Amino acid sequence: MCNIIVLKGDITVYPADIIVNAANSSLLGGGGVDGAIHRKGGAAILDECQKIRARQGGCYAGNAVITTAGLLPAKYVIHAVGPRWNDGTKGEAELLQQTYQRCLHLAVEHNARSMSFPNISTGTYQFPKELAAQIASDTIFAFFEDNQSIETINIVCYEQDNYDIYQAIIKRREI
Ligand code: ADP
């Protein structure tokens, strides 16, 4: 049985086996949650991202790579590249679902018991928040119908509106 917990604030302060980063294709860091993770995690994370880049040339939308967590309270960081919202007709929904699935599979492969997700694509990439939350929660719940090795998933919402949206979704599921 997996616990899904909705938290508020900065993802870098919550201990978990894996912290997911909303990265971009360059894997070289950026603003938002990406900036916070690299700042708090230290140089070891960027160092590994650069090695991955040298090997595979970055990471496309819908995919993710895994590195050390550096100084963060975690074993690994998964750098997930969500889709940039365009007009909804460019496969954005499928790509966001694929991004969450890829993170969950990588976490299982690395024997994670707990992991934290930020609200991927809902910042700079401008994915509509309600739709993103619905896709994220549907994907996570569907995944746990077949796989119970992860015990706790934190959904860490930095913004109050995302927090409210997830609280409402979780409440509906519990009814
Ligand atoms: P993207 O490019 O995927 O949209 P962003 O980092 O711009 O990535 O935003 C993704 C989400 O992460 C947004 O909801 C944003 O408010 C949130 N966010 C920003 N900083 C943090 C943080 N320190 N911890 C958790 N979430 C954060």
Automatic annotation (TrEMBL):
Annotated TM spans: none
InterPro entries: Macro_dom (IPR002589), Macro_dom-like (IPR043472)
Domain Macro: 1-174
SMART domains for the chain: A1pp
Gene3D superfamilies: Leucine Aminopeptidase, subunit E, domain 1 (3.40.220.10)
Pfam families noted in UniProt: Macro
Family annotation (NCBIfam families): PRK00431.1-6 (NF001664)
Name by which UniProt lists this protein: O-acetyl-ADP-ribose deacetylase
